[in-house]
């Protein structure tokens, strides 16, 4: 599977970690953007290289389009942004 930043094409190594607002750090692409600690699904992911935010599903370059709004609404899951490192996550503009 080809996973890279849609803006700068940085490929996250297995050692890369993102931090959820619950404080848990994990490799977000191991769980398709869902925090394994609290279950939050993150709609956007910040690149460690260019620091830009992109929709999480845009990082997967060999998958069909995903309707994140339909998935999160159907499952009643809160959707937020995932940040890299110690940068605090921002809230998504749309639930």
Describe the structure using short key phrases.
95 residues, mainly beta, 1 helix, 5 strands, 8% helix, 20% strand, globular
Question: In words, what does this structure look like?
Answer:
This protein is mainly beta and 95 residues long. It has one domain (18-84). It has one helix at 68-75, and strands at residues 18-19, 25-26, 41-46, 53-55, 79-84. Strands 2-1-5-3-4 form a five-stranded mixed beta sheet, with no helix packed on it. Strand 3 and strand 4 (53-55) form a beta hairpin. The longest helix has 8 residues, at 68-75.
Per-chain topology:
Elements: E1 18-19, E2 25-26, E3 41-46, E4 53-55, H1 68-75, E5 79-84
Parallel strand pairs: 3-5
Antiparallel strand pairs: 1-2, 1-5, 3-4
User: Can you tell me the overall shape?
Assistant: globular
Number of helical elements: 1
The run of helices and strands is EEEEHE
Number of domains: 1
Strand content: 15-25%
Which structural class best describes the helix and strand composition? mainly beta
Largest sheet: 5 strands, mixed
Low-confidence stretches: 86-95
Helix content: under 10%
Taking all Cα atoms into account, the compactness measure Rg is 12 Å
Give the N-terminus to C-terminus distance in angstroms: 28 Å
Quaternary structure type: single chain
Largest sheet: spatial strand order? 2-1-5-3-4
């Amino acid at each position: 599977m080809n996973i890279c930043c849609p803006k700068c094409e940085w490929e996250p190594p297995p050692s890369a970690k993102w931090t959820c607002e619950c404080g848990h750090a994990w490799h977000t692409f191991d769980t398709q953007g869902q925090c394994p600690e609290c279950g939050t699904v993150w709609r956007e992911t910040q690149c460690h290289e260019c620091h830009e935010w992109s929709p999480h599903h845009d990082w997967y370059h060999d998958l069909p389009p995903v309707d994140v709004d339909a998935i999160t609404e159907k499952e009643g899951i809160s959707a937020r942004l995932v940040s890299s490192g110690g940068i605090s996550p921002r809230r998504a503009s749309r639930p």
